[in-house]
């Protein structure tokens, strides 16, 4: 210590010892002259020795409390007071040789902290014990007591010294406050500067009755005690540590433990909430140690699901319930790697052998420093059973669908084969029918040129007309049969467009003249002169469309309009429209008119005749040529059939 500081410390009026923090010895490092005079000792006799070596008399009754106070101040790094240990002089006083009289003291042990918070020294200060009358005196003293009083004032803990009073019957009746620091005054509800009554019943009336019995045991029986209570105007909680002082007296040290109580209450509520959620959770929950799998707790849902009793589950290893060690090891490995598992499906068996499928979600927690598994299990046995049944049903349905598909494919193949056979038969039959039919038509035409009676000529004309109609019907049947049988193949030859259009109009002109209909051809000279394609099938398409238009137009006109929509390198896109002013087609019938043997109105078959194959043949031929066939019609206003084709241009090949 610096010499100036040493002299200052030595001459300080307070009674101080500086102790090393080396329990249980508590070596004396320094002592003030006031302390040495009080205990009648020399500095050389004190320094370097342990506190309890030099003042052995302090061990008479008070030493355990003093030692505990020093150790508490060292451990908590906070001041701690102990009431009235007894110090005897180290040696007899000089002079007359009279024996020294032991004296009683109140002590305060205060740690001195380094910058890092560790305890460097302990300051052990003493004040001579005394008693007060009436009003409790203020803690700060005068003269050499001032340093102790300053520390006493600054203590965060409330400190008080009480004399416990007994009545004539020996029962504790009250306690007199001998000394109280400001912290105790505050917790007792005393305003700064306000006198605190010396009576415990007057100072703390709501607590006196409960405290007196305990304080009497401390003061008169020498039994230290600790208890917690709520004090002060704000209901804060304090831990009261009471230890014996002089006979009939005790010292109180009051620690504010409100924060600890609140934390304990919050912990209690949290644990209560967790316990409630744990016990009443609809999921089955189990807690087990990670290292050995020992079950720590389960809820009722788990017991009901597993078919176990609480006694049979808790304390056993959770791995006992797994169907195999390998399954348990895989689960634990994933839990160890990821810290948690979600949606783990596992099959178990209940004690009665029933299968149990669960979905497990687990988390690895640290509970009191020990790795712990918290698992939640959901019984999905019924769900898995339904899922398996659904999979089996799906497999059955898939098998049946496959079988039915195979049957339908076989039936389709058989139907297609039968249809091809029918088409082949019709093609052959139509061809066979045409041979004698041509003979009938030819003979009827010859008869018409002969000199016969008028009636015979009329009959010959009817025969020829009927033959022509029958030949047209036969040709339609032959064409559709050949198309369905795959016997129609398109040609790709050069042809002239304008002569083809004029030839088509020339063929149907007599039919138009017979019905007094105007037949109009709109084919501008800008159309391509030469094209590549199948002129015979194109002519057949136009003849069928024009024939239908003439058949279903009672008055007005039929127009064949040809337009070039676009021309690209080597190709021309044409639109060939047949427009009539006939009876038209209802919207609901427009889709059906392209089906074989179908006309827009069943009555029209009898009224206008025909097989209903014309438009079907046109649709098939247009499809074969890679074109499109469109219909626009309104009943009573006529119809427009539009054929769109893309044909090659020979001169640009």
TrEMBL record:
Residues 428-649 form the Histidine kinase domain. Residues 380-414 form a coiled coil. It catalyses: ATP + protein L-histidine = ADP + protein N-phospho-L-histidine. Transmembrane segments: none annotated. This is Virulence sensor protein BvgS. The keyword Lipid biosynthesis does not apply. Member of the two-component regulatory system BvgS/BvgA. Phosphorylates BvgA via a four-step phosphorelay in response to environmental signals. NCBIfam families: sensory_box. The lineage of its organism: Bacteria, Pseudomonadati, Pseudomonadota, Betaproteobacteria, Burkholderiales. Residues 342-392 form the PAC domain. Keywords: Coiled coil, Kinase, Phosphoprotein, Signal, Transferase, Two-component regulatory system, Virulence. GO terms for molecular function: phosphorelay sensor kinase activity. Its EC number is 2.7.13.3. It is an enzyme of class 2 (transferase). Pfam families: HATPase_c, HisKA, PAS_4, PAS_9. PROSITE patterns: HIS_KIN, PAC. PANTHER family: HISTIDINE KINASE CONTAINING CHEY-HOMOLOGOUS RECEIVER DOMAIN AND PAS DOMAIN-RELATED, TWO-COMPONENT HISTIDINE PROTEIN KINASE.
């Amino acid at each position: 210590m610096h010499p100036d500081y040493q002299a200052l410390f030595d001459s300080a009026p307070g009674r101080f010892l500086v102790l090393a923090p080396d329990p249980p010895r508590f070596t004396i490092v320094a002592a003030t002259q006031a302390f040495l005079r009080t205990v009648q000792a020399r500095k050389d006799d004190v320094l370097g020795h342990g506190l309890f070596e030099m003042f052995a008399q302090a061990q008479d009754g008070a030493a355990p409390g003093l030692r505990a106070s020093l150790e508490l101040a060292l451990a908590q790094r906070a001041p701690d007071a102990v009431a009235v240990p007894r110090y005897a002089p180290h040696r007899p006083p000089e002079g007359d040789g009279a024996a020294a009289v032991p004296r009683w003291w109140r002590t305060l042990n205060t740690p001195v902290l380094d910058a890092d918070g560790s305890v460097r020294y302990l300051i052990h200060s003493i004040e001579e014990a005394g008693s007060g009358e009436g009003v409790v005196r203020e803690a700060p003293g005068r003269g050499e007591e001032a340093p102790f009083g300053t520390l006493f004032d600054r203590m965060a803990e409330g400190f008080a010294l009480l004399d416990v009073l007994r009545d004539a019957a020996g029962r504790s009746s009250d306690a007199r406050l001998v000394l109280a620091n400001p912290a105790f005054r505050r917790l007792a509800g005393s305003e700064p500067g306000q006198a605190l009554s010396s009576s415990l019943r007057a100072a703390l009336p709501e607590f006196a009755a409960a405290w007196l019995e305990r304080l009497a045991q401390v003061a008169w029986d020498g039994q230290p005690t600790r208890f917690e209570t709520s004090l002060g105007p704000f209901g804060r909680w304090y831990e009261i540590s009471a230890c014996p002082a002089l006979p009939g007296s005790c010292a109180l040290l009051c620690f504010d433990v409100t924060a600890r109580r609140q934390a304990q209450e919050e912990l209690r509520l949290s644990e209560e909430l967790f316990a409630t959620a744990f016990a009443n959770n609809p999921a089955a929950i189990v807690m087990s140690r990670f290292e050995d799998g020992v079950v720590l707790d389960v809820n009722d849902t788990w017991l009901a699901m597993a078919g176990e009793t609480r006694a049979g589950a808790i304390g056993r290893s959770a791995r006992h319930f797994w169907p195999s060690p390998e399954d348990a090891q895989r689960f634990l490995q994933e839990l160890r790697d990821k810290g948690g598992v979600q949606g783990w499906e596992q099959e178990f068996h209940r004690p009665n052998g029933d299968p149990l499928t669960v979905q497990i979600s687990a988390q690895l927690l640290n509970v009191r420093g020990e790795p712990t598994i918290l698992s939640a299990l959901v019984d999905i046995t019924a769900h898995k059973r339904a899922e398996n049944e659904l999979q089996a049903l799906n497999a059955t349905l898939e098998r049946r669908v496959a079988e039915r598909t195979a049957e339908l494919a076989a039936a389709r193949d058989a139907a297609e084969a039968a249809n091809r056979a029918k088409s082949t038969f019709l093609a052959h039959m139509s061809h066979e029918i045409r041979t004698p039919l041509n003979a009938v038509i030819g003979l009827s035409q010859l008869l018409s040129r002969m000199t016969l009676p008028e009636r015979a000529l009329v009959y010959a004309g009817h025969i020829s007309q009927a033959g022509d109609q029958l030949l047209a019907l036969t040709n339609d049947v032959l064409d559709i049969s050949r198309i369905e049988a795959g016997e129609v193949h398109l040609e790709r030859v050069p042809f002239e467009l304008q002569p083809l259009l004029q030839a088509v109009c020339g063929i149907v002109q007599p039919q138009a003249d017979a019905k007094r209909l105007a037949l109009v051809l709109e084919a501008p000279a800008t159309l391509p002169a030469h094209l590549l394609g199948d002129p015979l099938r194109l002519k057949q398409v136009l003849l069928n469309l024009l024939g239908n238009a003439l058949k279903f137009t009672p008055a007005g006109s039929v127009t064949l309009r040809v337009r070039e929509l676009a021309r690209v390198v080597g190709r021309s896109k044409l639109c060939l429209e047949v427009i009539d002013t006939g009876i038209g087609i209802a919207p609901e019938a427009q889709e059906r008119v392209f089906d074989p043997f179908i006309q827009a109105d069943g009555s029209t078959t009898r009224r206008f005749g025909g097989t209903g194959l014309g438009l079907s043949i046109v649709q098939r031929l247009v499809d074969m040529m890679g074109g499109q066939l469109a219909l626009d019609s309104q009943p009573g206003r006529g119809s427009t059939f539009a054929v769109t084709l893309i044909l090659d241009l020979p001169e640009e090949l």
